User: Which sequence fits this backbone?
């Protein structure tokens, strides 16, 4: 089944670190681009980071310098390493595949169920 | 690019025709997508390119508009359509979303 599934969410103290993983099934990480997005409780959607086919990465200003996205072709996963976490980073984190159809670029056509990150003392 | 959705919430009944609007802070051509998010679930892509319905999405969902103003229309509401709907621009990097429209019974 074509799907992505996130893992690694946890309760972490302010200033702490966490690594999220996105397991990709039935298609190749190397042939697609992926983003991480997040949604704070009761809030809207926020794009966080993207990794493109060639490995190029970009980040939202709010996480630049603290988060690192990477892909692992050997085990067909995408990860998000997060450092210096603050309560404002608390959210459900989603891994999503970027759409490649005409007029669809920058949209997200396959989402995982999400993993919860809570930053609190 | 800022996206403003209206209304923020909407009450409707099964069988109703419903329209949600999304206004962009600058012209974005037809570079807009719509998502549906049910409570506790991930968003689902409904429409891209302002009016192209994603594979598997019921045809009661339609999108229109270009430039600044866009609409999502549900022609005849079904019980499973009660959810929150988000627009997202596809015009440039970084992508951003509207604040959402909660569709309630």
Assistant:
């Amino acid at each position: 089944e074509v799907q992505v599934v996130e893992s690694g969410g946890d309760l972490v103290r302010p200033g702490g670190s966490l690594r999220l993983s996105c397991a990709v099934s039935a298609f190749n990480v190397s042939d697609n681009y992926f983003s991480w997005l997040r949604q704070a409780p009761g809030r809207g959607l926020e794009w966080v980071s993207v990794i493109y086919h060639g490995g190029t990465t970009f980040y939202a200003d709010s996480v630049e310098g603290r988060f690192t996205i990477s892909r692992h072709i050997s085990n067909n996963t995408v990860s998000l390493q997060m450092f210096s976490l603050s309560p404002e980073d608390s959210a459900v984190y989603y891994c999503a595949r970027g759409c490649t159809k005409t007029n669809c670029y920058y949209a997200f056509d396959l989402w995982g169920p999400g993993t919860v990150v809570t930053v609190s003392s | 690019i800022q996206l403003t959705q209206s209304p923020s919430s909407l009450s409707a009944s099964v069988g109703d025709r419903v329209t949600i609007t999304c206004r962009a802070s600058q012209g974005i051509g037809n570079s807009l997508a719509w998502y549906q998010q049910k409570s506790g679930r991930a968003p689902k892509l409904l429409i891209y390119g302002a009016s192209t319905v994603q594979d598997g999405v019921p045809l009661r969902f339609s999108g229109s508009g270009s430039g600044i103003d866009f609409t999502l229309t549900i022609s005849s509401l079904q019980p499973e359509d009660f959810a929150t709907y988000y627009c997202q621009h596809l015009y440039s990097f970084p992508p951003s979303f509207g604040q959402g429209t909660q569709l309630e019974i």
In short: Chain B has a mean pLDDT of 96.
